[in-house]
Amino acid sequence: MSSPDFVLHVPYQPDRPALEVTREFVRVLEQRRSVRDFSPAPVERELIEAVVAAAASAPSGANKQPWTFVCVQDPEIKRKIRLAAEVEEREFYESRATESWKADLAPLGTDEHKEFLEVAPWLVVVFRHAKDPEHRGGGAVYYSEESVGIATGMLLAAAQLAGLATLTHTPSPMGFLAKVLERPANERAYMLIPMGWPADECRVPAAALVKKQLGEVAVFR
Ligand code: IYR
After folding, report:
1. Which among 189, 200, 113 has a CA at the least distance from the CA of 165?
2. What distance in angstroms lies between residue 18's CA and the mean position of ligand 1's atoms?
3. What is the pLDDT of residues 118-171, one digit of tens each?
């Protein structure tokens, strides 16, 4: 190995679970659906903490970990988020979205009403850290979009493993989230993820069920 002598390396011997464990993980992940019908039943904070810990274990550019996960349970804050999101979404459906975008969304049956933002017991808001101009020398981040995308994927996977329903919600623009949640100037809202148990009568659109076959997405050479 060619790293300089002054770099400390430590042994790395992670668990090596069987193929069966991986297949079981795939089986769990394949059950994930974007859910908009949440049960208002509470979810214990410990479970949310475990899911966030999975996300926070993600790799990131130069290990800068350019993320903050704001976990909102407070009904008043959830209400503020819902109202602000619905303002943006109304604008989206009434004028910002192109006709072809709306046609692509039609099979999902979505609209500007976002009741789930108050019903779901938790809203996990993922913030990406941008370079901090106030922080002389030390505020750099690298590949923060990619890093936060990976962390968010791991968050969704862990939630699914816990049996929690999630929605990858991106009311656009999302600037209101930094304001409502009083985040520092270098944090940008990346994704708003309602999290909770699915409602007993939870239904999901049939249209989004079909995933591409492995042969369509993977190339082996
Ligand atoms: N943000 C809107 C619209 C929307 C956009 C995409 I791309 C989706 O996959 C689903 C919805 C909304 O949440 O309704």
Report:
1. 200
2. 38
3. 999 999 999 999 987 777 667 899 999 999 999 999 999 999 999 999 999 999
Three-class SS of residue 124? strand
- Give the CATH number of domain 66-198: 3.40.109.10
Residues with Cβ < 8 Å from 215, sequence gap 6 or more? none
What are the pLDDT digits (tens) for 4-23?
888 999 999 999 999 999 99
Cis peptide before 173 (omega within 30 of 0): yes
Contact predicate 34/166, CB 8 Å: yes
Measure 113 CA to ligand 1 centroid, in angstroms.
11
Distances (CA, A) of 127 to 32, 65, 173: 23, 11, 14
- Grouping H, G, I as helix, E, B as strand and the rest as coil, residue 24 is helix
The domain spans of the chain are 66-198
